[in-house]
Amino acid sequence: MRYELKSIPVWAFLKITFFVNLIAGFVLGIFMTPLVGVFSVVLVSIFQMQGTNFDVSNSLDSIIVATPVILSFLFAFVLTSFEIVVVFIYNIFASFIGGISFVLEPEKSTGNKQKQSTPAVPQKVSPQKSDSIKQQYKKQDNPPPLPPVLNKKEKIIQKNIVQESEIKKEEPQQMTDKPVRVRIAPSPSGYLHVGTARMAIANFLYARHTGGQFLIRIENTDAARSDDSLIEPIISALKWLGIESDEEIIFQSDRIELYEKYAQQILKDGKGYRCFCSPELLAADREEAKANKGPLRYNRRCLHLTQEEIDKKIADGEKFAIRIKIPDGQTSFNDIVSHELKRDNREIEDFIIARSDGTATYNLAVVIDDNDMKISHVIRGNDHITNTFKQIHIYNALGFTLPTFGHVPLILRPDKKKVSKRLGDKDVAQYREEGILPEAMFNFLCLLGWSPKTDREIYNVQELIEIFNPNNFNNSNAIFNEEKLEAFNKEHIALKSDHELAVLVAPLLVEAGYTSKYWLETRWEYLRSVISILKTRVRRVSDFVELSKYFFDFDYSYDAKADEKNFTPEAIDILNQFAERLEKLDVYTKETIESTLSELAVEKDMKKGKLIHPTRLAVSGIPNGPGLYDLLFVLGQKEVVERMKKAAVYIQQK
RNA sequence: GGCGAUAUCGUCUAACGGUUAGGACCGGCGGUUCUCAUCCGUCAAAUAGGGGUUCGAUUCCCCUUAUCGCUACCA
């Protein structure tokens, strides 16, 4: 428990003291007045029995008679002082631990976003984290000298290290004895969208954090809606994020018979019943309920059919679905993310567990599979809360033990609707096409609706595994903001080495037709240098392509506006002279390029900018880009001279 | 309509019941620089409304409002 001194205003202290003393005074008045009277009478009587007669005009006698009164005042004074001391101590105490109520009724504060709750699992954070986070990421070809003065970001990182070590001090507590086994269960009715990806990330992190297993199950019980060709894209999109199943992937389509067996068992045990209502009839029921503004639940028409009626309908060849019979009462469960969720069973309809063709519906299949796969924690979107109530009744009907549930708030589109393929939301793989790094997507989705409770935002996967705690989910839905994703992407690009980025960019350059695979393979160092000087100008990996065009395209044109401004007649002379001097350089480095330019500027009595701008335009065709010395160095001596001379000719001719 | 969940800057989020309500993205303005970017500094921006409990409420309770979700022989 952490103690922290809080100040209480003086007037608040006085106010409490005043009220306490008012009560004390009242109590004293009630009890002391008769007591003093009796005591006075007794005292006077004793003296009288001894034959002493009192004369109130005698000062000594007056004092004797007044003694009880004086004593009672003294007593009151002592008592009041005592009250003050008590109140003072109370305040000191309260200021340390935030009030007596915390000690007396700790359970009252549990509703407050799990502030007192201990982490579900031990917090394993590696001690070497005190190294600069940035340094850990940097690869061999980019050794970062740590600046002696920390910048703002590093200060934040250092601050977080302190905070994280504080978190670790809390007593870890295992949420359940069961080994952790979690799953993600996408259905192949669309591509992998960010909502599913986020749930996969949460489950995956929980499994890794606890040392448990993460599994994938494909939910394709609905033959009409499922498309097996979508399975592979979903799995590969997850793989792109670094998420793979620890065991063989389970397909519900392989288990249809098993589900049927359990559906029959529920029917046989009297926990369910046959429903002969046709879909059309049910739809009409719903319409009617809507018109009457009543609840849209099944009216249990078929619950009370007699055995003869049932036999007759079966004999007549009527098709039936199987419904589960929801008992009377109330259903409740404890949720990791939310708290206790309760529902009156009257709100849960007798839903269908097996269709009239005998196949199982979603809820039955899920329960059977989760039980079979020994899933310990079902962590999913809170759009499943209604399903959880239904599924609990299947667990009960089949005698299975319940897993622990966690219902996570949803990710919403900017228009605040639930993300879905139907509304044209992007496939996760599409972000890959658009130059988002998987690390950035992982990091961003993890922090959407979940918080590490620090001021830091950029983490790699390993760090997220270490700090992940399902208690830290936010209670409200979060809007997916692509601008913020881009910002995360920028940060993760900065953390990548030039080589890693070159590997990603190379195929894009080939695809764009700027160069060939062979050309790049023989000039890998060149590509790496190009990446290196463009890195800070990029938000998406794909941005490299457009920005680096002139490094690979030798037939570029000049930006019209810049042409007009910088390619003046005097630029011809500048370009030619500068090119000649560069050509003569024996040692061609950034330093020699810079000194050459400086010398020329001095000789011509010009500002450096006068030389720089035409040169930049000559070698790149555009007015902005990397620092000129970097640019000239990376392009190479021969190429630069050639381009400058070409530009001089161009100006002459225009 | 019924049931449920949720409510802090525009967005993502911090804040043992006591803070000047903090950070990040976006935006504005500066600085660094040959340009653009980076980087640095800085500004603007929020506790939905109303009651209650409390010396004190963003925090606990209730009501209202709003938002979201579910309400299929879909998953």
Describe this protein's structure:
The chain is mainly alpha-helical and 654 residues long. 53% of the residues lie in helices and 7% in strands. It contains 27 helices and twelve strands. It has helices spanning 10-49, 59-97, 100-104, 133-137, 152-168, 194-210, 231-240, 256-268, 279-291, 307-315, 362-372, 385-398, 428-433, 438-446, 461-467, 482-495, 498-511, 517-522, 524-534, 543-547, 549-552, 560-566, 569-584, 590-604, 608-620, 628-635, 637-653; strands spanning 181-184, 213-218, 250-251, 272-275, 321-324, 330-334, 340-344, 352-354, 377-381, 404-408, 411-412, 478-479. Strands 1-2-3 form a three-stranded parallel sheet. The chain has a three-stranded antiparallel sheet with strand order 4-5-8. Helix 12 (385-398) links the parallel strand 9 (377-381) and strand 10. The protein starts with 9 loop residues before the first helix and ends with a helix. Mean pLDDT is 81; it is low at 1-6 and 95-175. The structure holds one RNA strand of 75 nucleotides.
